[in-house]
């Protein structure tokens, strides 16, 4: 089936989903969860094909690990769907409402977006997560996973579709798109009018190509070149804990820190503690001359940093580091190299915190807290479809409300405009 | 100066505007208003050049009328800026806020978008309106007016820039972009990273080309193929008043009605009254066979309607018309031909109203009220930058909050993720 046909089926499903009650949607989500558990052997078997292909292709182990499904991981996917069923339904919420001076009743209601396209890489658990969130918010979804997870995704989507249908919702609420060639991604990006929004989830390259080529509106997600700025007034012990947590706790994710900025007044003291601690945690520091000199004094090797390093999201145990002359210089550095994801300051100074918060332009600005907190789960949203780094529609972790639009409803009794 | 350089200057101005206080911004808006009034002769003289050029080019009178400025119109522009100064500042509003279980303080704050590009046609009053709204919401603006209003826009922007500067804000808060060739529009559409959002205001052709070619996120505005559906349970006197108001009160605007749908049970009676009334108001009806037969019975000529008519935003004293078998058929027709702007039902039936509101997918759905009410001023927003017909970010009339994004601020006391 062509992507266009799939889009048309999705549109049709979306009109049903738009007016489906919360009870129906939640029952479908629970049925999907039960079906995933019941059909675990089938899904794990399909996944084994993907894993075998990946091995043959010489895929690195850590990618294969992300691809692999077992009964525990399938159960976790099912639990995720049950959690989504427990979240409040954003659809129908009155965002604002008033009676106008002429007596017209005006309400702005939350409504589904319609059809959402998700383009994502390796991890097959995204398939169930994304489908569940889209469905809960009343949207049909077109899922374009990577070809490396094709068998797993096919088995998961077949399971979800059957469960949706058994619950009285259209099977086409959830569809898997092609996956064999890049041509279907292109078609998805050109399906304006059929697809209301595309959300790419994955590496910087994927996101850039979708942003540049799509005529369908895109929500950019996930690239995080996050900084930790240690201010002159920082508690240096706290700063070190935050730095290590932000860099090391899970280096492969977008809210991990990629760059350290230290105020010159505390640079010697902080780096003397931080460089050995980073080394002990397995982190390679890419530093300026000042940072390297501090490394020499501590007996820690610091790699020379390049201009490119400062703009790099390593997603690994690497960090760029620089000493800055002032808060202004830190803000200017972040403005130049940051990706607008999460930026942290460690400081005991209220004026410094206030200025950093006001002047740094990012989805999340953190004071005396690790960048790792920028996360829908941590923020209490219950679930997350991604972290938007753009400014339109949604910025930061996106939960269910971010998967909706609004509609104005105006009720009169024969009102005409004078 | 290249659009790129202008974008860089705008970005720099935007960083100042982002943290400007409401007092400073309002003072600048009032200074701009005063300056427009003070420099009226200069502006009117510049406008005379545009008008003369338009005459030479054989521009139709109604376009020239929209282009023309006199002291009254300049004063109205100034009043518009003063009104914007009186509106609440959206920046800094806490959209949501909570303390997370771990003690982290989480707030979502409204922040400016940054740099907004506006691409618009003939009317030079848009120049001051758009600049005022963007500035109030803390954004720098790149204005790309039509070449036919080049002299007027140059004089207006020079006035606004001088007033901004005299008030302590950067002159580059407001910039006029090229205007001589289409090349600068293209550059604006490709200025991703420098421009945060593009808002095209004008005809369907302009909007389509911006939507298709832009890599900068776009907010689609203004195309309104609006329907009035007269339900079986309508008060037919009310229906006629609403229809006439929606079609005739100002036919050239996007919230005017372009299509009439009548339920078959009331078609004969309603059309017997409506067709002569529309004719008397100077409206040409493009109707289906049933509507034409009703016309014959009333002695009113009805032009045969084409498939294309149903999809046409006439913006003139024309209306397409069809008889439908049911509410479902009306909803299906609107789904097929509507542009998602404003759709009205006239009905005395609560279930019919409820279904129409739930099933019609548009920025505004009106019950027993004219489509002409979909308007920022009418909705009480105080001002309007346009009416979005897309679902992302903003839908319906866009006021100041729609010219902002948000930022999460997270404050802890050394919080790290376990």
TrEMBL record, chains A, B:
Residues 5-280 form the Aldehyde dehydrogenase domain. Signal peptide: none annotated. The keyword NADP applies. It catalyses: L-glutamate 5-semialdehyde + phosphate + NADP(+) = L-glutamyl 5-phosphate + NADPH + H(+). Pfam families: Aldedh. Pathway: Amino-acid biosynthesis; L-proline biosynthesis; L-glutamate 5-semialdehyde from L-glutamate: step 2/2. It is found in: Cytoplasm. Keywords: Amino-acid biosynthesis, Cytoplasm, NADP, Oxidoreductase, Proline biosynthesis. It is an enzyme of class 1 (oxidoreductase). Gene3D superfamilies: Aldehyde Dehydrogenase, Chain A, domain 1, Aldehyde Dehydrogenase, Chain A, domain 2. Its EC number is 1.2.1.41. InterPro entries: Ald_DH/histidinol_DH, Ald_DH_C, Ald_DH_N, Aldehyde_DH_dom, G-glutamylP_reductase_CS, Glu-5-SA_DH, GPR_dom. Belongs to the gamma-glutamyl phosphate reductase family. Catalyzes the NADPH-dependent reduction of L-glutamate 5-phosphate into L-glutamate 5-semialdehyde and phosphate. The product spontaneously undergoes cyclization to form 1-pyrroline-5-carboxylate. This is Gamma-glutamyl phosphate reductase. It comes from Luedemannella helvata. The gene is proA.
């Amino acid at each position: 089936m062509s992507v266009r046909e799939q889009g048309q089926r999705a549109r049709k499903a979306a009109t049903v989903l738009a007016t489906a009650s919360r009870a129906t949607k939640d029952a479908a989500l629970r049925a999907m969860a039960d079906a995933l558990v019941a059909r675990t052997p089938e899904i794990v078997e399909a996944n084994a094909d993907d894993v075998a292909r990946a091995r043959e292709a010489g895929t690195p182990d850590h990618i294969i690990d992300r691809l692999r499904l077992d009964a525990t991981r399938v159960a976790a996917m099912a639990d995720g769907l049950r959690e989504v069923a427990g979240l409040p339904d954003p659809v129908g919420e009155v965002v604002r409402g008033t009676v106008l001076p002429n007596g017209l009743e005006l309400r702005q209601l939350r409504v589904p977006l319609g059809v959402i396209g998700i383009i994502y890489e390796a991890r097959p658990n995204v398939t169930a997560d994304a489908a569940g969130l889209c469905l809960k918010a009343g949207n049909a979804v077109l899922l374009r996973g990577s070809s490396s997870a094709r068998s797993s995704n096919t088995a998961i989507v077949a399971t979800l579709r059957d469960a949706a249908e058994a619950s009285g919702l259209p099977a086409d609420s959830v569809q898997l798109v092609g996956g064999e060639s890049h041509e279907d991604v292109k078609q998805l990006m050109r399906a304006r009018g059929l697809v209301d929004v595309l959300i790419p989830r994955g590496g910087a390259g994927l996101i850039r190509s979708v942003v540049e080529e799509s005529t369908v509106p895109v929500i950019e997600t996930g690239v995080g070149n996050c900084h930790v700025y240690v201010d002159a007034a920082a508690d240096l012990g706290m700063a070190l804990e935050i730095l290590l947590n932000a860099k090391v706790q899970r280096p492969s994710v977008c809210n991990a820190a990629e760059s350290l900025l230290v105020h010159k007044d505390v640079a010697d003291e902080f780096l003397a503690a931080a460089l050995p601690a980073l080394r002990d945690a397995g982190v390679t520091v890419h530093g300026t001359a000042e940072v390297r000199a501090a490394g020499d004094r501590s007996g820690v090797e610091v790699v020379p940093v390049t201009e490119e390093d400062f703009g790099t999201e390593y997603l690994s145990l690497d960090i760029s580091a620089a000493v800055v002359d002032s808060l202004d210089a830190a803000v200017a550095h972040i403005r130049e190299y940051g990706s607008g994801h999460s930026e942290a300051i460690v400081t005991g100074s209220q004026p410094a915190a206030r200025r950093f918060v006001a002047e740094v332009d990012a989805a999340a600005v953190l004071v005396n807290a690790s960048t790792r907190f920028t996360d829908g789960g941590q923020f209490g949203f219950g679930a997350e479809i991604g972290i938007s780094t753009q400014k339109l529609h949604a910025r930061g972790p996106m939960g269910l409300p971010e998967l909706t639009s609004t509609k104005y409803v105006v009720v009169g009794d024969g009102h005409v405009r004078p």
